């Protein structure tokens, strides 16, 4: 029998139930238990560390998470933010240890999906959104000016600008905090 974990919202339960019904109807091997937990995490709590051997998927109901790495010089490089309605995970864990830290930037309520859990239809849509944002970001880091990257950041994450330190936004943009100040000043002056 496939079991649902307790503590999920009704909508999420219905989505998982549909997935389980499809497992049975299509005679696909269904996992013994779908392990999804709703948890509250405190600001600053590290959910995953670089080098962990397994990764989970985190769906943010309330709050804000980030993923980042730390280079050999001790400098943080911010990979992505995950505000409400976003999914965050580390895809590298498929091939070995994780590459990213995942941290709560605010007190947050999240759904934790263990490694073997399949995505529901709405999760798939959010995952596609995440991939599109990362693809656009990679292209912009290669070809766009700092002002263009900042404009794109504002469009991608309109609700978090006041919620995160400027040094994290600068890290996300691939520039120094001083360069971010210059970009913001140039935008204010209309340049």
Overall mean pLDDT score? 80
Low-confidence spans: 1-8, 20-32
H/E element sequence = EHEEEEEEEEEHHHH
The helix/strand class is alpha+beta
Describe the strand arrangement of the main beta sheet, using strand numbers.
3-10-5-8
Shape: globular
Written description of the protein model:
Helix 2 runs antiparallel to helix 3 (146-156). With 191 residues, the protein is an alpha+beta fold. It is built from five helices and ten strands. It has helices at 10-25, 121-143, 146-156, 166-173, 177-189; strands at 3-4, 33-34, 36-41, 46-48, 57-62, 65-70, 76-82, 87-88, 101-104, 108-113. 37% of the residues lie in helices and 23% in strands. The protein starts with a strand and ends with a helix. It is globular, with a radius of gyration of 18 Å. Strands 3-10-5-8 form a four-stranded antiparallel β-sheet. A four-stranded antiparallel β-sheet has the order 4-9-6-7. Strands 1-2 form a two-stranded parallel ribbon. Helix 1 links the parallel strand 1 (3-4) and strand 2.
């Amino acid at each position: 029998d496939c079991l649902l974990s307790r503590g999920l919202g009704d909508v999420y339960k219905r989505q998982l139930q549909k997935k389980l019904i499809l497992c049975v109807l299509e005679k696909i091997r269904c996992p013994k238990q779908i392990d999804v937990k709703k948890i509250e995490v405190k600001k600053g709590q590290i959910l995953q560390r670089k080098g962990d051997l397994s990764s989970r998927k985190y769906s943010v109901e309330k709050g804000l998470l980030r993923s980042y790495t730390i280079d050999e010089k001790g400098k943080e490089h911010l990979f992505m933010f995950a505000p409400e309605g976003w999914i965050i995970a580390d895809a590298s864990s498929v091939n070995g240890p994780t590459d990213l830290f995942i941290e709560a930037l605010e007190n947050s309520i999240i759904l934790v999906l263990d490694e073997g859990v399949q995505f529901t239809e709405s999760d798939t849509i959010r995952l596609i959104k995440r991939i599109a944002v990362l693809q656009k970001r990679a292209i912009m880091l290669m070809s766009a000016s700092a002002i263009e990257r900042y404009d794109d950041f504002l469009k991608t994450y309109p609700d978090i600008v006041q919620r995160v330190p400027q040094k994290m936004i600068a890290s996300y943009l691939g520039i120094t905090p001083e360069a971010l100040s210059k970009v913001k000043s140039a935008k204010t002056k209309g340049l």
